[in-house]
Each structure stands twice: as C-alpha cells, then as structure tokens.
Amino acid sequence: MPLRTGQSAVAPGASRALGQVEILWQLVDGKQRFGQLRRAIPDVTQHMLTTQLRDLESEGLVKRTVFPEVPPRVEYEMTPAARALRPVFDELFRWANAHARPEPGADAAKGDDELP
C-alpha cells in the first residue's frame, strides 16, 4: 500500500521503540549523564529523551541514579535485564554495517582511477 503525503513509513510506536534502542545503544559501554545522551543523539528533543528514559526506567531496562549534589547529578545505566540484550545489539550493529548505504557524495570522493 503506497504512502500518502505526510504519512510516516514507521508504524505507530515504532519510532518510540527505535529511540529507546538508540538510548540503550548509547548506554552499552557504561553510565551516561543526560547531557551526554542528548549530545550523542542529536535529533532527539529534551522532552522526548526525558520521556523515553522514564519509559525505559519503568520497563526495568534503565537505572537512574540521582546524586545529592548542587546542581543535581543524574546518571543513567543499563540494568542487568537490558545488558542481556547486548548480543542483540551486536547482531544489529553487524547487520547495519553489512547493509549500510553509501554516504551521499561518497562516490564523488573517489578518484577517477578507482572502480566503484
């Protein structure tokens, strides 16, 4: 079924899940603060990141630690349940690398003597 103008190719709820996967991917290597996550995921708004982190916390996939400092310091990390997903992340990463589309203009960067 073709998409109509203004219609998303992503199923309802799928974009939320994709955002959560991206957050978890950022936490694979260890704890991160909110600002670090925000910089690592440039297309996410502060509101959406906050909402998704809360959802992940309520689902038992992210642990939020608040330190009694001024200003408050908050760190996010994967729970053991989320860490159990590491093999899934590794496979997704391998698949993405194997099926990656070339960057736009990448062919223009090649020399004339190189074959595509």
Number of domains: 1
Summing up helix and strand content along with how strands pair, one would put the structural category as alpha+beta
What's the CATH class label? Answer: Mainly Alpha
Count all strands and give the number: 3
Strand order of the largest sheet: 1-3-2
Uncertain ranges: 1-11, 112-116
Mean pLDDT: 80
Tell me, briefly, the overall form: globular
The biggest sheet, with number of strands, parallel, antiparallel or mixed sense and barrel status, is: 3 strands, antiparallel
Query: Treating each run of at least 4 consecutive H or I residues as one helix, how many helices?
Result: 6
Strand-residue proportion: 5-15%
Q: What is the CATH superfamily label?
A: Winged helix-like DNA-binding domain superfamily/Winged helix DNA-binding domain
CATH architecture: Orthogonal Bundle
String of helices and strands = HEHHEEHHH
CATH level-3 fold name: Arc Repressor Mutant, subunit A
Q: Fraction of residues in helices? A: 40-55%
What does this structure look like?
The longest helix has 14 residues, at 14-27. The protein contains six helices and three strands, in the order αβααββααα. The protein is an alpha+beta fold and 116 residues long. The protein has helices at 14-27, 34-40, 46-58, 80-83, 86-98, 106-109, and strands at 32-33, 62-67, 73-78. Helix 1 (14-27) packs across helix 3.
